[in-house]
Write a structure and sequence with these properties.
This protein is α/β, with parallel strands linked by helices and 316 residues long. It has 13 helices and 10 strands. Helix 2 packs across helix 10 and helix 11 crosses helix 12.
C-alpha cells in the first residue's frame, strides 16, 4: 500500500511539474532575434519600434543584437545566436564557406558610392595603381574586400602587390590617422566620417567595380519554421524604406545619437544609400556568384560555392 502511495505521489508530482511548465510557457510570446549594425535600415526599424507592433499579433517579440560589422553577424547566424540580420556582399559568401546555415531572403538596390578606398589628404597616392607595395587597411571578409580586389585588378595590380592589414573599422581609423597604413578601404558611415574629420580623399569607390548590395539574411531553420515571421520582418523593413527614401536630414537626425556620428556627416552617407527592399533575382545571384568565384580563385575560400543553394525559394 505504501509503495502504491509513493508511486501515486511521484505521479502527481510529475503531473504538477509538467502542468507548471505548461503554465509558465503558455501564452508567452516567442522571440525573433534580429542582428543589426550601427547603420542601415534595420537600426531605423529598431528605433521606431514598428517591428514589435507588427509581430505582436503573431505572438512574437523582438530581441535586438548589435554587431560592429557583417562578418561577426554571420558568425552569429552560424552558431544560431540570431535569426535575422543584414550584411554587404562579402560576409555571406565567407559565411557560406564556413558552413553557416542561412538564407538570402531579400536585398536593397546597389549603392556603389557607399564604399571607397581612402587615402590621407596629404598622401602622394593619386590612383589605385599607386598602392603597389603599400599597406591597405580593411575589415577582412567585409564588403570592401571585394571592392579592393576589383580595384586592384582594374589598375593592373594583383592582390599580392599590396600588403593587406586586417582591422575592424575603429582600429583601422586610428591606424589611418596616425599613418600606420597608406590607405583604408571602408564603407559608410565610417567613410563619410573620415572624409569630414580628416579630409580623406577617395581614389576609387564601387562605381563600375562593386555594386555594394545590402543583403537581408535569415537562419535557415527559423525560416523553415516561421516563414510568416520572416515575411513580416521584410514587410516592416519595406515600410521603413518608404519612410526614409528622400528624407536624409530627418533620418540623419534620428540616427545620430544612437550611432554617435553627427547628423551632417550621416546626411552625406545617406545620400549614397539606396532603398527598395526586394527578393533576389537571377542577376543579383549571378553577381554574388561572381564574387564567390573571385575569392575562391584568390585562395581566400577553402572551396567553390553555389550561391543559389542558399537563396530563399518561393513558398519558403
Amino acid at each position: 500500500m505504501r509503495s502504491f502511495e509513493r508511486l501515486m505521489a511521484v505521479a502527481i508530482l510529475s503531473i504538477s511539474v509538467v502542468a507548471a511548465s505548461v503554465g509558465v510557457s503558455y501564452g508567452q510570446d516567442k522571440v525573433v532575434r534580429v542582428g543589426y549594425q550601427k547603420y542601415g535600415n534595420i537600426i531605423l526599424l529598431k528605433g521606431k519600434g514598428s517591428l514589435e507592433k507588427k509581430l505582436a499579433p503573431l505572438g512574437f517579440k523582438v530581441e535586438w543584437k548589435e554587431f560592429p560589422s557583417g562578418p561577426p553577424l554571420l558568425e552569429a547566424l552560424n552558431v544560431n545566436a540570431i535569426d535575422f540580420g543584414h550584411a554587404g556582399e562579402s560576409p555571406p559568401i565567407f559565411g557560406q564557406a564556413a558552413g553557416a546555415q542561412f538564407l538570402y531572403v531579400a536585398h536593397e538596390p546597389p549603392a556603389p558610392k557607399g564604399e571607397a578606398i581612402l587615402v590621407p589628404k596629404t598622401s602622394s597616392i593619386k590612383t589605385v595603381a599607386d598602392l603597389k607595395d603599400k599597406k591597405v587597411a580593411l575589415n577582412k571578409g567585409s564588403n570592401v574586400h571585394y571592392l579592393l580586389v576589383k580595384a586592384l585588378e582594374k589598375a593592373g595590380l594583383k592582390y599580392a602587390d599590396i600588403e593587406p592589414v586586417f582591422l575592424a573599422p575603429a582600429d583601422a581609423r586610428a591606424a589611418f590617422e596616425r599613418g600606420s597604413v597608406d590607405a583604408w578601404v571602408i564603407w559608410d558611415p565610417y567613410q563619410a566620417s573620415a572624409e569630414v574629420a580628416t579630409g580623406a580623399r577617395t581614389i576609387a569607390d564601387g562605381t563600375g567595380l562593386a555594386p555594394n548590395h545590402q543583403f537581408y539574411l535569415a537562419n535557415q531553420k527559423f525560416t523553415e519554421a516561421h516563414p510568416e515571421i520572416v515575411d513580416a520582418v521584410i514587410d516592416a523593413i519595406a515600410d521603413i524604406d518608404r519612410w526614409a527614401d528622400g528624407k536624409e536630414k530627418a533620418v540623419a537626425e534620428e540616427l545620430s545619437a544612437g550611432i554617435g556620428i553627427p547628423a551632417p556627416v550621416l546626411e552625406i552617407a545617406l545620400k549614397r544609400q539606396t532603398y527598395g527592399i526586394r527578393p533576389l533575382d537571377d542577376k543579383v545571384v549571378a553577381g554574388q556568384q561572381s564574387i564567390a568565384d573571385t575569392f575562391y580563385a584568390l585562395g581566400l575560400l577553402p572551396k567553390p560555392l553555389v550561391v543559389s543553394s542558399v537563396v530563399r525559394k518561393a513558398g519558403l
